[in-house]
Amino acid sequence: MPNTAREKKTKLILDVAIKLFTEKGYAATTMEDVAKTAGISKGLSYFYFKNKEDLYMAVTKKAFDELKSIFREIFKQKGRSGLEMLTDLASAYIVFAKSHHMYNDAILNFMGIMQLYTQEQGRDKIHPLILESEHFQKLLDIHHDCGKLGIQMVSHGIKDGSIRPELQPEITFYTVWSMIIGYERLTGPVAYEEKEIKIHLDNWKPGFIKLLQDMLKGTIQAQKPQVVQTSLF
């Protein structure tokens, strides 16, 4: 909980920004809108956040923190196998994306920024105010935190025998993670095209979860992990 005047004001501005970004969208929201809704002067809002890009990066960091808390809660559950943890994670992320749509969009937007950031000529295509944001710099340090927890879930599953022993934890988690994100992104097109193709959201989700589990379990009985590494397919 914020306990200083600065922390309280920062939280107020963030909360208002999240509300407006959710209702109006990022492009249609101005710093003046945020300041007016927060009941502060526009000049004061710039004291806490240099510009709208800086504010959006702060919101994005908050989104990653919220997602990380979901990963952490699942990972620390006692008596759950690694496979059960990943199954819980898939369901929890789908709920997160639906109930916190703006957070999810911010996270996916940051992933797109990182795709440019890691390319030799890509950084020139990123808004310079984003690169200057202190919150962007913080995101560079913490955006893999969820992945680290996910990798531990896979490793736990390999050790407890619920996940195929020949799988490599890092490759496995990021493949699973891409599948979960892809599922969430495609729920809209599938819902719209359900009259044209033989799939419905009501049966796709359990089918997706089962396929994910079968892929991770494999068709062979779990045994002591070998040095051999292979792909998921």
Topology, please?
Elements: H1 5-24, H2 31-38, H3 42-48, H4 52-75, H5 82-99, H6 101-117, H7 128-132, H8 134-142, H9 145-160, H10 169-192, H11 201-217
Helix pairs in contact: 1-2, 2-3, 4-5, 4-6, 4-8, 4-9, 5-6, 5-9, 5-10, 5-11, 9-10, 10-11
Quick summary:
With 233 residues, the protein is mainly α. The protein has helices spanning 5-24, 31-38, 42-48, 52-75, 82-99, 101-117, 128-132, 134-142, 145-160, 169-192, 201-217.
Structural class, from helix and strand content?
mainly alpha
Number of continuous helical runs: 11
Largest sheet: none
> What portion of residues is helical?
over 70%
Termini separation comes to: 46 Å
Residue windows where pLDDT falls under 50 for at least 5 positions: none
DNA-binding region: 30-49
Keywords: DNA-binding
Pfam families: TetR_N
Domain HTH tetR-type: 7-67
Q: Mind explaining what this structure looks like?
A:
The protein is 71% helix and 0% strand. It is an all-alpha fold. The chain has two domains: 1-49, Orthogonal Bundle (Arc Repressor Mutant, subunit A), CATH 1.10.10; 51-217, Tetracycline Repressor, domain 2. The protein is globular and about 60 Å long. The model has no long low-confidence stretch (mean pLDDT 91). GO terms for molecular function: DNA-binding transcription factor activity; transcription cis-regulatory region binding.
